[in-house]
Design a protein that fits this description.
The complex is a heterodimer of chains A (317) and B (290). Chain A has 317 residues and is mainly alpha-helical. Chain A is 76% helix and 3% strand. Chain A has 14 helices and 4 strands. In chain A, helix 7 packs across helix 8 and helix 11 (245-258) crosses helix 12 (264-284). Chain B is mainly α and 290 residues long. Chain B has a single domain (5-279), classed as ABC transporter involved in vitamin B12 uptake, BtuC (Orthogonal Bundle). Helix content of chain B is 75%, strand content 3%. Chain B is built from 11 helices and 2 strands. In chain B, a hairpin with a 2-residue loop joins strand 1 (131-134) and strand 2. Chain B is globular. The chains are: A mainly alpha (317), B mainly alpha (290). Chain A binds chain B through residues 58, 60, 106-107, 109-110, 112-114, 116-118, 120-122, 124-125, 128-129, 131-132, 245, 249, 252-253, 256, 286-287, 289-290, 292-294, 296-297, 300-301, 304, and chain B through 33, 39, 86, 89-90, 93, 95-97, 99-101, 103-105, 107-108, 110-112, 114-115, 221, 225, 228-229, 231-232, 236, 261, 263-264, 266-267, 270, 273-274, 277-278, 281.
């Protein structure tokens, strides 16, 4: 039984992965970019699923991790010549991890609603700091920088065309998915899920719940930062708008629409949301959030498990 | 470094005035949370819509006080409707789902306002035009009146909770929803009523604040954040705690803006929040829970 599940799962994974590899080759320019963006936002949403879906903590502050990853990458790309991709990744992850450690230390003292509010307020702290510290962060205008090349050592270097960038993002996102899936199925992941189901009992068994929560927030923040780095590389700018709370809110929406606790659900949710936004904004320009908000409310009430919720058990097997 | 005494005094008055408005916003939020376990993300949007209703009725009637009352009543009705349509079906589910639902509501309301009224800020004229001399400043009486009026609304609300029939029902529902229902309290109506009252208070504070900073579709977010901080620092569900925390935080921000720009002074309230979370996560102004 189990091996059959494995075969079906890996076949499905391979099919989707193959489709994603082919996508930029057949799609027109606009949609090529679009699919890459879906993958990046999907990675952000997936990172937040570690908290929402697996540990039972709703984070309204993922924009902080995403944005700091972005600014970390910006720092590396602006200070080194020629801009180095690996240094950007390194700086971005360090920045995101530092912020995540800070946020995790304070916010995990609180539970449920208090955790959600605290993460929201923390992300606003970083927003205000970045917005007002014009000398370093460029303030409202943000920072512009050059795209690094995909280089390995001195011998091999490849500049990013949209297609190669798409493949790179795809590789990172797929790798992150497999890694996160492995983590959620590990003993550590099991403890997180038992915190979600019953925190008091988990503590009573003898697990240091607070420490697990801190690690969960940091893990989640690290992958959110990774998404931020990818976004910075794709668009060659970092702006305070991405640290703003609205990004965190959209991350939560992706999760709820796609189905929490499934890892792939949030990516599907991001795709659904962004496609809907694209479609709606043709008629409604910037007011697309009105119908999207209604759809979101209706989903919270009527389909709380999300689009992929029906597959949840199967995906986590 | 020497800050003259008169400036400190002016900032004290400023801080108390904004603190009272903030207390009015936060008390609606904390009331809804304390009784229904609902974190109302849309509270800031109700504040903003209240201000807009105020702007519109003011344009028609020309009377600020009619605008204030009609905005409160209209937004209270809207709040009740929102409660019945979106939050009622969520009773009994994880309280976190109510955050999600109210977040969706706030998106809809904020963008509706943007669509309907545009991004440009609208002005509300001060209903009390007089000024008095405060050192070198002409200080508007209106600001003092706002502080007093907010205090009166909160005080009246406290009396209502203490002695009114509905107030007693509300408190009974807070303590034990099932038991209250068994004793004949119409719990569903009480919950809808609480949401309506909280929304009305948000709208009233929106109209009162209108003459200070103008009315625009994004003003809600700024206030909901500060109200959240107040509610956490004051202790969720505690009316007195919110009042104290609102004034405390507004005073600190007002003093901080003597040295740094107002947008950076916000960081002070963030720091207060962090310190509170570190040492008294249940709130600064409530008794230590056993």
């Amino acid at each position: 039984m189990r091996s059959r599940h494995g075969v079906v799962f890996w076949t499905g994974f391979a099919v989707v992965f193959a489709l994603m590899i082919v996508a930029p080759l057949v799609l027109p320019e606009f949609w090529r970019r679009f699919v890459t963006e879906i993958l990046i936002w999907g990675l952000l949403a997936m990172s937040s699923d570690i908290l929402i879906g697996y540990t039972g903590m709703i984070s309204f502050g993922h924009s902080a991790f995403f944005g700091l990853g972005m600014y970390g990458a910006a720092a590396a790309l602006l200070t080194t010549q020629p801009p180095s991709l690996w240094l950007a990744l390194f700086y971005g992850l360090i920045a995101a991890a530092a912020v995540a450690a800070f946020v995790a230390y304070f916010s995990t003292r609180l539970r449920d609603i208090y955790f959600a509010i605290t993460t929201l307020i923390f992300s606003q702290i970083f927003y205000v700091v970045i917005f007002t510290w014009t000398a370093v962060t460029g303030g409202e205008n943000g920072l512009n920088f050059d795209q690094p090349a995909l280089g390995f050592g001195r011998s091999f270097s490849l500049s990013f065309t949209p297609t190669i960038l798409h493949w790179f993002v795809l590789a990172v996102v797929a790798g992150s998915y497999l890694l996160l899936r492995r983590i959620t199925r590990s003993p550590f992941g099991m403890v997180l899920q038992s915190i979600r189901e019953n925190e008091a009992r988990t503590r009573a068994i003898g697990y240091a719940v607070e420490r697990y929560k801190i690690v969960a927030v940091m893990l989640s923040g690290l992958f959110a930062g990774l998404a931020g780095i990818l976004y910075a590389i794709q668009n060659q700018f970092a702006a305070p708008d991405f640290v703003f709370f609205l990004v965190s809110g959209e991350t939560v929406i992706y999760n709820v629409i796609g189905g929490i606790g499934t890892l792939v659900g949030p990516i599907v949710g991001a795709a659904f949301f962004l496609l809907l936004r694209e479609g709606l904004s043709r008629f409604l320009t910037e007011y697309y959030l009105i119908p999207l908000g209604f759809i979101f409310i209706a989903m919270v009430i009527f389909v709380p498990q999300g689009l992929l919720g029906f597959m949840r058990r199967w995906l986590n097997q | 470094m020497g800050i003259p005494l008169d400036q400190i005094l002016i900032q004290t008055i400023n801080g108390i005035v904004t603190g009272m408005i903030l207390a009015l916003v936060a008390s609606g939020l904390t009331l809804i949370f304390g009784i229904m376990d609902v974190v109302n993300f849309a509270h800031g949007e109700l504040f903003m819509l209240g201000a807009y209703v105020g702007v519109l009725t003011l344009a028609v009637t020309g009377d600020f006080w009619i605008a204030l009352i009609s905005a409160s009543l209209l937004i209270a009705l809207l709040g009740a409707a929102i409660y019945l349509v979106t939050l009622r079906p969520l009773i009994g589910r994880d309280p976190l789902t109510t955050i999600l639902a109210t977040f969706g509501i706030s998106l809809v309301l904020q963008n509706y306002a943007l669509w309907q009224f545009g991004p440009v800020s609208r002005k509300i004229a001060e209903p009390i035009a007089g000024h008095f001399n405060l050192f070198y400043l002409d200080y508007p009486w209106y600001r003092v009146a706002v502080a007093l009026l907010s205090a009166a609304i909160i005080g009246g609300f406290w009396l209502f909770l203490k002695f009114g029939t509905w107030g007693i029902w509300i408190r009974a529902t807070t303590q034990d929803r099932v038991m209250a229902q068994a004793m004949g309290v119409p719990v569903p109506w009480v919950l809808a009523g609480v949401f309506a009252i909280g929304s009305g208070m948000a709208a009233a504070s929106g109209v009162l604040f209108g003459p200070f900073g103008g009315v625009d579709p994004t003003m809600g977010l700024n206030w909901i954040l500060r109200a959240f901080i107040v509610v956490v620092v004051g202790g969720m569900g505690s009316l007195g705690g919110s009042l104290a925390a609102a004034i405390f935080i507004s005073l600190l921000e007002a003093y901080a803006s003597l040295w740094v720009s107002p947008s950076q002074a916000v960081i002070v309230s963030f720091v207060v929040l962090i310190v509170t979370l570190l040492f008294r996560p249940t709130g600064l102004f409530v008794a230590t829970p056993k």
